[in-house]
Amino acid sequence: MRQAKAELYVHIVWATEGRRELMKPPVHRALYRCVEGQARQLGCTVLAIGGVADHVHMVLRMPAKLSLAQLLQ
Predict the structure, then answer these.
(1) In 10 A of CB 44, how many CB atoms?
(2) Which CATH architecture describes the domain 8-72?
(3) Are 68 and 10 in contact (CB under 8 A)?
(4) What is the 3-state secondary structure (H, E, C) of 13-36?
(5) Strand 55-62 to strand 8-15: parallel, antiparallel, or no bridges (unpaired)?
(6) Which residue of 24, 27, 59, 64 could cross-link 48, Cys pair, CB 3.0 to 4.6 Å?
């Protein structure tokens, strides 16, 4: 019997307002842990996370039952 399988991969980018350089290196680790923890609570697997002073990138695998709108809340 066949089973349907869906894997959804998402690349998300957050930027500071006006691209101001607000996120300095000491803050990065805590910020990444916080964002990764929230993603895990939603059943996502974070594959990569990183950024610079004015934006953050994250690539994750999300469950098909989760909508993109729910993830981005």
Answers:
(1) 19
(2) 2-Layer Sandwich (3.30)
(3) yes
(4) EEECHHHCCCCCHHHHHHHHHHHH
(5) antiparallel
(6) 59
Contacts of 44 (CB under 8 A, 6+ apart): 60, 61, 62, 63, 66, 71
Give the pair of three-digit tokens for residue 29. Answer: 């680790």
- pLDDT digit string (tens) for 20-48? 888 888 888 888 999 999 999 999 999 99
Question: Which residue bears the tokens 């399988």?
Answer: 5
Element (H, E) at 57: strand 55-62
Sequence-distant (6+) residues with CB within 8 A of 34 are none
